[in-house]
Amino acid sequence: MWTSSRKRLARLEAAWQQPATRSAHFPLVTRYYDLVQHESTYHRLPDQTWADLNGDLLFELLDTTVSRIGQQCLYHRLRSPLADEAALREFDAAATLLAQQPGARGQALLALGQLTAHEAYYQVDLISGEPLPTVPGARFAPLLALGLVATLLGGFWLPLLWVGTLSLALTNAVFHFWQRQWIEHCVRPLLQLGRLHRAGRELQQADLPFRPLQQLAAPLVQLGAFVRQVAFFQVADSWLLELLKMLLLLDVLLYARCRVAVQQHAPAIRTVFEAVGYVDCALAVASFRQRHATCVPHFGPTAEGIRLQAGYHPLVLGCVPNDLTLAGSGVLLTGSNMSGKTTFMRTLGVSSLLAQTIATCPATAYHAPFCRVLTSLSLADSLPTGKSYYLVEAETMRQLLLACDAAPNSYLLLLDELFKGTNTQERIAANKAVLEYLQPRSWVMAATHDGELGALLQSCFAEYHFCETVTAEDWYFDYRLKAGPLTTRNAIRLLARLHYPAQVVAAAQALSAILSTQAQAESI
User: Which residues cross the membrane (predicted)?
Assistant: First the structure.
């Protein structure tokens, strides 16, 4: 049903204000990233780091994209940090313009609104440089079509040939309906190509000062003729054309031609695809900035380290902001469970990631060098491979060590309770050795419950902590990062607040006092 541009724009503008309520089809959303992730680039976020930083939830928070192509490009952007300040400043300028100029935003929304169909997810298949799948038996289609025409015309001289015409017509009809579902599946990437071409042309004509749009003139011209061929598959209202498709196998013949032509046009299709996705990503970031307190990041030399001011996690409602300077020495975080250690590490990781992908930080200020984020926050044992938790930890840390050796001073490492899969003595020893090795080669923030590590690493790590307050009536966390080591222990008191049996609490307190006395005696 036809809808006026004004009504469509009002609907698109309202949707742009908030994250999409649609469910994210992640296997489809990730297809562009999966296709190009092996291409050379500064960094690709590993699956473990993406999971540790709650990447899927972060994507959903940012996803106010209009088109399916925009969704795919946004996911790819979030997993592909850049070390190109000029490119990030260009993207920041694009998002700022779309936020501040309703007219330009409206033109972009209307253009992108043509690519909301589910089939638009499959356009990524057209940029791989590979031909589309073949249709079984397609090599016989030219012979069947030519045979029908030949017997039909020959029948005017030898009517007996019309028997062959009828036989071939029946054969072609059966072949057509047999292949119809397969062809409909194969042409899915092609069905939205005309809309992609039209959206790219409208964005170019909108005179938006975005570099990807300024490169569209030649690709749009190249795609024009190809789009007209593809339009044949979308004509479905003419009974005469449907009859000709059935008898002459026109859809099979045209698909065979188009599937190979896709290779020739793949670079042009990719240029338009990525330009359209770029605009949609900028729109999504403009929306995110209006909904959240953010800043534009500043990038400096390695020697200046990382400075985060009033950083917060955008996925945590009412998150308490904190400041941090990470330069010279690493950071060792202590504190009880639920006090905020892991959330703060994720905050730093998300800030660094968003700074280098969408030029936007959930903070009042962010100043840092370009760095690759790697994490070890939520590992688990692997039942299918038979790997214990400790083995998974050890293998993960080995990869981090190798990465830092290969590219020193280019990684930000966020590590939570390393080697907790083994005994206390060996855990502390392994932690000290690994963290001491990593600190000169990277920026390191590590969380631990082992207070002994602070003294062992005091030459290269600064201690910070989070703490809670436990009273007879209640307990609460202020989630404020504080300098220095943790000096209070409230874990057993918390058990009492949770109404553990008094005998259990008393026994734990007594043994804790004995162990503390022994530790002090050994340290003298």
Answer: 140-162
